[in-house]
Design a protein that fits this description.
Order of helices and strands: HHHHHHHEEEHHH
Helix content: 40-55%
CATH class of the largest domain: Mainly Alpha
Bound molecules: manganese (II) ion
Number of helices: 10
Radius of gyration: 17 Å
CATH architecture of the largest domain: Orthogonal Bundle
Shape: globular
Length: 237
């Protein structure tokens, strides 16, 4: 990504954050992803909220340079090309992929829009030196659904390990209840009416440079060290 493009993305993001009356440091992952309106130039890929090396030693700068700078960017580029070709003017990425999912001709648009959303949701949900556990209202809900925070982490780890091939493990809100689910490829819990709160990318590109085939070690490192539980709590809405 060029520095010019990065600057544009950052301005677009700041404009949204300010206009929505949301402090930059405390935006919700869901609203930050959902509200990047197509502005004629398409959806701007939001900047990482930390430096590429900030998640080391758990996720290397090299992984992030490829995973954010190449993979995530490629999804945004493909979405923007497709919505320009199809003259789609949807207000949010989630609207684009939910609409695209309704027709067989929408497969490419669905895959790229959902992956753009899923990746930004993933990046925003991580932070260097993430808190070790949820707190407050979120913790109460976690305790109700999973017994305790360790129970939730176990469920997330099992979902991540159990996803055959590429996909995602999620903490979601369904009605008033927290659940852990997994989705294959680009699929997103919003397709089933579940509200995403946290996701872990379990596509091999997320961990192979750092962990090779040891997906469970990568998932444990993320859950124990990098989750931004403040953002997860904000995603409750
Ligand atoms: Mn990925």
């Amino acid at each position: 990504m060029s520095s010019e493009r990065n600057a544009v993305s950052r301005r677009t993001f700041c404009k949204y954050a300010v206009s929505a009356g949301v402090a930059l440091a405390s935006f919700s992952a869901l609203s930050s992803v959902a509200s990047f309106a197509a502005s004629g130039k398409g959806f701007a890929m939001p900047p990482l909220p930390y430096a590429e090396g900030a998640l080391e030693p758990h996720i290397s700068a090299k992984t992030i340079s490829f995973h954010y700078g190449k993979h995530t960017k490629a999804y945004y580029d493909a979405v923007n090309k497709l919505i320009a070709e199809k003259a789609i003017n949807a207000p949010s990425l989630e609207q684009v992929f939910l609409d695209a999912a309704k027709s067989p001709e929408g497969t490419a648009l669905f895959n790229n829009a959902a992956q753009a959303f899923n990746h930004t949701f993933y990046w925003v949900g991580l932070t260097p030196g993430g808190a070790n556990a949820p707190s407050g209202k979120l913790l109460k809900m976690v305790n109700t659904a999973f017994g305790n925070a360790d129970g939730m982490k176990k469920a997330l780890s099992a979902a991540a390990a159990g996803q055959f091939g590429s996909g995602w493990a999620w903490l979601v809100l369904e009605g008033d209840t927290l659940k852990v689910v997994k989705t294959p490829n680009a699929e997103n819990p919003l397709q089933k009416g579940q509200k995403p709160l946290l996701t872990v990318d379990v596509w091999e590109h997320a961990y192979y440079l750092d962990y090779q085939n040891r997906r469970p070690a990568y998932v444990k490192a993320v859950l124990d060290n990098l989750v931004n539980w403040d953002i997860v709590a904000k995603n409750l809405g």
